[in-house]
Amino acid sequence: xxxxxxxxxxxxxxxxxxxxxxxxxxxxxxxxxxxxxxxxxxxxxxxxxxxxxxxxxxxxxxxxxxxxxxxxxxxxxxxxxxxxxxxxxxxxxxxxxxxxxxxxxxxxxxxxxxxxxxxxxxxxxxxxxxxxxxxxxxxxxxxxxxxxxxxxxxxxxxxxxxxxxxxxxxxxxxxxxxxxx
Length: 181
Description:
This protein is α/β, with parallel strands linked by helices. Helices cover 38% and strands 24% of the residues. Helix 2 crosses helix 3.
């Protein structure tokens, strides 16, 4: 075979591997992480209050109120375990969680069934707790915007937000969290 033919076959096999192996999915996650945007820290005139009277549930379907975090800094993130964009964000959020879980209340929220979410957590070695949405219940955010995240201060005011792929584990976000604590 000619050298060019061999080269073309190698390139074709490489491209095909993106569609038939885990390489493609992992590459999407890597690209999402590389090209993610910064969280938006809202100017004071654009910050807004949320109603903390919002019911969620844990893995065992035990309901609890978001208001249990009144007086604390909160990080809220909506995700889907099957979206590469969400997994890319969650990798950074795990690092943020490792450093701030004792000081900030984390609400990593999905509307999926627990089994696939727990399998993804196990596969990725995520240690944060997942919170589950209760459908048809009032909430301060649009659960259809996935992925999306918010940093909320002690007075239930949204200070920062991010929609789509966002770099949550950044110096900018860490500086903001440190200033709120």
